[in-house]
Amino acid sequence: MKKHYLQEPEWSWNLPGEQPPTYVHHWVQQLRNTNNTPDMILYGAPISRSSISVSGASLYPTEFRRLWKNFATYNLDEDVDLIPYNVADAGDVSMHTTDILLSHQRIQESTTYLVENYPNTTTCMIGGDHSTTACAVRGIKEAYPEETIGILQLDTHLDVRDPKELGPANGTPIRQLIDGDIVKGEHVINIGLHGYFNAKPLIDYAKEHKIQMVTIKQARKKGLIKTIQKALNDLSSKVDRIYVTVDMDVLDISLAPGVPASTPGGMTTIELFDSLLEIGRHPVVNHIDFVCLDPSKDSAVAETVKTGVYAWLQFVTGRILQD
Amino acid sequence: MKKHYLQEPEWSWNLPGEQPPTYVHHWVQQLRNTNNTPDMILYGAPISRSSISVSGASLYPTEFRRLWKNFATYNLDEDVDLIPYNVADAGDVSMHTTDILLSHQRIQESTTYLVENYPNTTTCMIGGDHSTTACAVRGIKEAYPEETIGILQLDTHLDVRDPKELGPANGTPIRQLIDGDIVKGEHVINIGLHGYFNAKPLIDYAKEHKIQMVTIKQARKKGLIKTIQKALNDLSSKVDRIYVTVDMDVLDISLAPGVPASTPGGMTTIELFDSLLEIGRHPVVNHIDFVCLDPSKDSAVAETVKTGVYAWLQFVTGRILQD
Amino acid sequence: MKKHYLQEPEWSWNLPGEQPPTYVHHWVQQLRNTNNTPDMILYGAPISRSSISVSGASLYPTEFRRLWKNFATYNLDEDVDLIPYNVADAGDVSMHTTDILLSHQRIQESTTYLVENYPNTTTCMIGGDHSTTACAVRGIKEAYPEETIGILQLDTHLDVRDPKELGPANGTPIRQLIDGDIVKGEHVINIGLHGYFNAKPLIDYAKEHKIQMVTIKQARKKGLIKTIQKALNDLSSKVDRIYVTVDMDVLDISLAPGVPASTPGGMTTIELFDSLLEIGRHPVVNHIDFVCLDPSKDSAVAETVKTGVYAWLQFVTGRILQD
Amino acid sequence: MKKHYLQEPEWSWNLPGEQPPTYVHHWVQQLRNTNNTPDMILYGAPISRSSISVSGASLYPTEFRRLWKNFATYNLDEDVDLIPYNVADAGDVSMHTTDILLSHQRIQESTTYLVENYPNTTTCMIGGDHSTTACAVRGIKEAYPEETIGILQLDTHLDVRDPKELGPANGTPIRQLIDGDIVKGEHVINIGLHGYFNAKPLIDYAKEHKIQMVTIKQARKKGLIKTIQKALNDLSSKVDRIYVTVDMDVLDISLAPGVPASTPGGMTTIELFDSLLEIGRHPVVNHIDFVCLDPSKDSAVAETVKTGVYAWLQFVTGRILQD
Amino acid sequence: MKKHYLQEPEWSWNLPGEQPPTYVHHWVQQLRNTNNTPDMILYGAPISRSSISVSGASLYPTEFRRLWKNFATYNLDEDVDLIPYNVADAGDVSMHTTDILLSHQRIQESTTYLVENYPNTTTCMIGGDHSTTACAVRGIKEAYPEETIGILQLDTHLDVRDPKELGPANGTPIRQLIDGDIVKGEHVINIGLHGYFNAKPLIDYAKEHKIQMVTIKQARKKGLIKTIQKALNDLSSKVDRIYVTVDMDVLDISLAPGVPASTPGGMTTIELFDSLLEIGRHPVVNHIDFVCLDPSKDSAVAETVKTGVYAWLQFVTGRILQD
Amino acid sequence: MKKHYLQEPEWSWNLPGEQPPTYVHHWVQQLRNTNNTPDMILYGAPISRSSISVSGASLYPTEFRRLWKNFATYNLDEDVDLIPYNVADAGDVSMHTTDILLSHQRIQESTTYLVENYPNTTTCMIGGDHSTTACAVRGIKEAYPEETIGILQLDTHLDVRDPKELGPANGTPIRQLIDGDIVKGEHVINIGLHGYFNAKPLIDYAKEHKIQMVTIKQARKKGLIKTIQKALNDLSSKVDRIYVTVDMDVLDISLAPGVPASTPGGMTTIELFDSLLEIGRHPVVNHIDFVCLDPSKDSAVAETVKTGVYAWLQFVTGRILQD
Questions:
Q1: φ, ψ for residue E203 (rounded to 5)?
Q2: Cβ contacts of residue F264 below 8 Å, gap of 6+?
């Protein structure tokens, strides 16, 4: 069994006593204090020095946890209580200060450790930049080498830049996985593309490898939820498990300034929240990550971090509604 | 007749001379200079030390008036001139520096004074935090003890936290009124709820007291304007007068950062503006307030304060179209 | 032939070598280095001291060019490569430090110079404040005095304040052109009006001169694209060439804080992008400008400048799809 | 013995293991985990709704602790290791949401509890607004009614506004104590006054009650350190114990924007740091507080909070050098 | 006698009743309400479209007055009450929207009007950009053509750029006056120069015209106050009246970000305050202005505007101490 | 002879024609266009992914050059024209996206290339984070293996964290050089240390290796310039060449927010400017760098970047005065 590099999460809350918890920070448990098999394991991958542009996404796991106390454990839209769903926090993968390859290796091994030890648990990785997705998927593949993995990507970018040129940077994870025979191009669906943010050679690569590109415009025309459903159904007919990766830069710049390369013309938060509810409902989705959220770019009201927590809770709500 | 604590408003504009005014700061008159009965009386309730979290909502009445000069007295969407509608500014209720109960009492008494002396005039209170709503409604009840009052609340929160625990804080006004037998729970309709911002015990209280909870999601499905119309019709069939309270935190964080607890997933400004136009049209709406707008949280372009003025003008337009 | 005052643009990029360019800064050429007749000529009019309120719109041409490197030359929504379309940058019109009339004259003469010398080329002026539009249209009229010019204006404001009172300020260009017999009021269509941002005398002027006023609300009801199409078709049936002027303050304050007088209730970026795609497609549109974008009011993520570049690229895409 | 209302501090750090701690967050211990009598007890008084102007000083105790990890436990200027000095954190006094008098009472009682139980320990209260100083001093007086207390105040303001008018607001603590016969006016020395920030009636009160007013200008002329020494020597010759209160608004606005009423012309951080080193050295100083630091007014680099932590460590260094 | 273009100031305060005023906004009177000859007349010159770079200095007169309520009418450093000194506010000179020459002419004529009608009153002009200084000095010269005027300038820049090239821009006022034979170069002393902010041709011009250039470094070496005294004594031995112009960009960027061209290495606020106290004391100083303060560049705490008000009050204190 | 990885600088200015340049951007030449041996060569090392905390110091070389146009080529304090001194810009070392070791190697080789080819030219490296200093010094050592190198470091930190633990991070350069036998500890002098920003084990290392630690407090006591002189004289008596490294975090947080770990209690800009003038004067100083300036942390007025350009020009002035 794989070694892991998970460190205790950077929080420790006063327990609310005998009453059931009503806020997120009292509801999530530390993994080491959890007796039963959790329904979901959270773990942080706080690295962003692998980002092409300057990024503080390494700060996100801590800020993500810090805002939990602003969120109640009840989804009023769906009239659903989150308390029965067990979420355990495994803490952050310990990163090396400068050795990017070593840090990436640790994310991969920690992921293998978690998916081997908790085979029936949904994993949720909190990045970090998008390079971490390649590590996590490789880690899953190592645990389940016989299974095929499909990827549903919500992203403004294809992330198929050439690792031979850039190394394992945040612009390359999908190409790393395709060129490394971990995932097939035809098992990757990207929803959220738009505008002028992918150079032609990348689009050529995507077409050549049959990555399914769905622009926001196309998704809106068909209905975003239907598009998500169709994507998940397509994937689940072809693969054994689905990994969902949410690059927060899929959101419009006015809603999510806290990403390294924010753009106009992106997805709305409502669309993201609805998508994640739907994704959470799907039984073949086993793994999810949220990446490229740079809290240092937020304004004082922390809009992107709040959106990140909300998005994650929508996925949790979907998990609960799934049953 | 009740004493009042209203002070002159903090503005004094050069009169535009013989030509009719074309901007809001020349159109609104000071109450003490008004000869005829005004159609609407504005008054400020500049208190926010009763807010659970840190709030500068006490600064709003002054900032609200300061931005009037950026707004023309003509609604181009409806092709309607506002000039014929008389708005008088009664100034702000004088607040004690630290005695919250005394300040609240003064808001209540000043409201009683206004509604007794101007029985046919629409009142519009500019908060302050949401605790002021309980004061205003009690003040109206004191003037008209035989009448039943209904509340239409646009809010992300239920505001039914327990005043026994928190005192008369901004999280408690609806519960103060229900527990105090001023308003019945079934006469309260909240539109704008969403997400994870109300803990389960509050939802339990709301259900127990039959508060009608309408999430934004539900309202959008049915049509927000239809939902507003239905709410006002329902209320007007049961109560004698309707008090509308607009907690500006009902708006999405990207549109209204200037509130103490801004959240993603909220109402859009367009939706709020359309709602207020509709609300203004309804004859049984006699009272309105706008609360929890903290100008100090705005960015340099004052987006939330501008939205607050615009929202109020939409209500005024509705009043005019009503006839 | 007219003199011109165009200075080299403030950029000089390393050429990408033998491979075709993949980003905008490698694709746009300097006009003086262009051998063939370009499809579009860009030129800057960096003046904003003619703005009624304080404005840094004079900074926009430089910031516009500086962000080119963040945009790829491929439109993923339309699956269209921009490379075959030739865009040449003529640089900025040289402005006098304090002599506004002289600066305006130079914009006019430089425009005449360009449209006379490149009669089949689309011109795109990057403002500067909205006063520059009057100069550009006069410049075109000087080159083609026999032709009638129609204006499609996307704007929150009518811009028909009285130049007799204000001089050639940014609130007056449309009135300058009507009163100066350059353009007829009935050949001006403004789409994007809303709210309380035009005083009654201006609306009276617009009605008197038969300016077609279309509020965003009306446009949304009919369909914005249909409204644009109808406007362009109406105009093209009456005029010889269409000048499109995009005042960036047509956008909502939450999406475009970087304008001197941002307002709530405005157009969305998606709506603007769709409109410009449609406008670009229309063959009778020969000239366009983008004005009143003040980069100094943007937050650190440069949302309005990015939106400005995106909007321009949408127009370019439309040009390409037109054929 | 008095009841107390102290809650666990909002932090829980991973212990550094067997090696000695090298950063502040590993060095400070929770009071309940401390076996020996600590040299200093920290406690928070997170209230600022008693502030005349809007204040987020209630947020300071949490932010103060959160920045500890940026500070090493070694003072390089003095070549002194802080580790041997035992600092225990008693957590925050539990505040009522709206009942200011009750909250103040709890600060007073908790202070009495601490000074009675730890008679030889230096106490350090982290505010909160300046109203908390009156509570703390009354708490000490209650524990040691026979002793006279002197106050050394570093402040831009006299804080002798009339509690009869304002209640126990942050502008009144010194007057509360003088009018309440807890402290004599002649036992109060204020260093740091300057400019135009105290109205004449307050200066008259101060003169009448023989408060010693030392402007920064005077202190600089004589030498700030000599002025501090003289003040402490004067006080210690007259009183039994000295309470030092540091209102962070004593600092210049360019150095400490994070206070509710920042002013130009204030003390420099170097002057404050030198002063606190000197104050820490003085054996008759038993109690200190740091108040009116509003972290929400800081820019993104948290300059005032960092200055607050640094200032406190200077006092600690002084304590160590004292022996 | 000259026409004037002074408009009522944009404020109107509630009178404090029978008690003497304790804050600045109650102390300053409107000129038209003043019975006796005032000791000082304030007037605003709200123009900044004559600024070379983008400037919001036109906003300063209003912001200057708006902050008065934060300043008491007592100088604690000097133990001096300001109340006996009569300050009257003449309001702002009415500016044309785009006609810079006309606006400049009005400043000049309004200054002539004031100095002719109030020959024994100190005038204090609140800019606006530095171009206004040339207008004011010309206005004084027009009233007293036989008198020689000397200028003491506190500035980072020489402001001797060529008006033939730039027109009457904010970089040219001193050269306008010298080339126009209003003031002799040898009667101009600039204190506050430093660094790399004056191009060589400007320094050559200054040397040629015998402008006395004193760098901050030189002033600090000699003693800034001594330098100021010597400058005033030198000037007063040669000229009939002294005009002092304070370009707020003389201050260091860390203390005064709110100027169009802030620089490191500038004067400190303490130095400026001390200088103005000294300048105020000098009997031959009859006129002063404060220019180039752009409130829109300040951070949320309004540091530069507060510094501007403080600086002005220091000059007032000097006037009082003079007698 | 070594390979180099220098790319053209990201600027290209219009030449000012026949007149001598008066601003920095016209004075500095591109190295490839320089005929004579330049007096100084600038080169950028735009890497900050080797920084321990999140850093945008990689953005500095571009921002440094972009602000040149705000600086004149004349030092008014010293009355010195910079034009005769030849500065050539070699551009930036080309960085790999993720391979830190490779990027470091390129900085080293490019430095070797420059110092071998231009043996009599002063080199000035613009970082990047502080890890680049180790590369540059190793590059010099490679070119001149027989020479001993001394280091004068202006820094808040010792930068002797253990590369065995952190890799070649920005906290380790001095230790890399000492442990790697490139530089002896006794040949390192650090001026600017203060406060609580170096953990005890680092101080122990520094003492053990005889690094000379001079706190700001000590330097101010002795006189900072004397301290600098003494340091340079001491070093020049022991070593063959002196490398000066300026970590911009030596400055106080209020003056230089644009560094990754800004602290209160640091050096003032005036002190830094005076120091660099003195350092520039010293003939044995052959190499300098400016590191750890993160432009993305600056406020809108770019205070730290402006300070960085000013500091570099002070060093240039010193070079000129040296002769």
A1: -65, -40
A2: D255, D269, D273, D303, D306, D307, D310, F195, F252, F253, F254
Residue F48 CA to residue F261 CA, distance in Å, equals: 13
Q: Is A245 helix (H, G, I), strand (E, B) or coil?
A: strand
The residue among D23, D25, D69, D76 with the most chain F CBs within 10 A of its CB, best to mutate, is D76
Separation of alpha carbons E42 and E85, rounded Å: 13
B8 and E CB contact within 8 Å? yes
- Residues of chain A neighbouring F59 (CB-CB closer than 8 A): 54
What is the identity of the amino acid at C177?
L
**DSSP label of C250:** G
Verify whether the Cβ–Cβ distance D253 to E72 is below 8 Å: no
Could you check whether the bond before residue B258 is cis, i.e. omega within 30 degrees of 0? no
Q: Which of B146, B155, B133 is nearest to B45 (CA)?
A: B133
F91-130 CB burial, b ≥16 within 10 A, e <16: bbbebbbbbbeebbbbbbbbbbbbbbebeebbbbbbbbbb
Query: How many CA atoms within 13 Å lie on the side-chain side of D198?
Result: 30
Helices (H), chain E: 24-27, 60-66, 100-117, 131-143, 163-166, 173-179, 200-208, 216-222, 224-238, 269-281, 303-322
User: Which string of DSSP letters, residue by residue, matches D269-295?
Assistant: HHHHHHHHHHHHH-TTEEEEEEE---G
CB–CB contact E98 C166 (8 Å)? yes
Query: What ipTM score was computed for the predicted complex, to two decimals?
Result: 0.95
Q: C190 forms bridges with which residues in the sheet?
A: C153, C213
Instruction: Give the minimum alpha-carbon distance from F55 to chain D in angstroms, rounded to a whole number.
Output: 13
What CA–CA distance (Å, rounded) separates C97 from E169? 7
- List of chain C residues whose C-beta atoms are within 8 Å of the C-beta of residue B307: 253, 264
How many angstroms separate the CA atoms of E209 and E194, rounded?
19
Question: Rounded CA gap, D280 and D40, in Å?
Answer: 12
> Which residues in chain A are closer than 8 Å to D7, comparing Cβ atoms?
14
Residue in E12, E296, E300 nearest the CB of B12: E12
Q: Give the residue among C90, C260, C243 at the shortest CA–CA distance from C170.
A: C260
| pLDDT tens, residue order, chain B (323 aa) | 567 787 877 676 656 666 788 999 999 999 988 888 999 999 999 999 999 999 999 999 999 999 999 999 999 999 999 999 999 999 999 999 999 999 999 999 999 999 999 999 999 999 999 999 999 999 999 999 999 999 999 999 999 999 999 999 999 999 999 999 999 999 999 999 999 999 999 999 999 999 999 999 999 999 999 999 999 999 999 999 999 999 999 999 999 999 998 999 999 999 999 999 999 999 999 999 999 999 999 999 999 999 999 999 999 999 999 86
d(CA E14, CA F14): 58
Angle, vertex CA D14, rays to CA D13 and CA D15, nearest 5: 105
Q: CB-based contacts of D120: which residues, under 8 Å, 6+ apart?
A: D37
Is E16 part of the contact surface with chain B (CB cutoff 8 Å)? no
> From residue F301, how far is each of E53, E292, E306, F58 by CA, in Å?
13, 15, 18, 19
Residue of E nearest to D300 (CA): E299
Residues paired with residue D241 on neighbouring β-strands, in sequence order: D149
Q: What is the least distance, in Å, from the CA of F202 to any CA of chain D?
A: 10
Instruction: Yes or no: say if B13 and B96 are a contact pair by the CB < 8 Å rule.
Output: no
Cβ neighbors of E62 (< 8 A, separation 6 or more) are E10, E44, E46
* Closest-CA residue of chain C to E52: C97
Amino acid (one-letter) located at F112: T
Q: Pick C12's closest partner by Cβ from F7, F12, F300.
A: F12
CA distance E257 to E295: 9
Task: Tell me the nearest-neighbour CA distance from A111 into chain D, angstroms.
Answer: 23
Q: Does the beta-carbon distance from A169 to F55 stay under 8 Å?
A: no
Structure tokens at F258: 């644009």
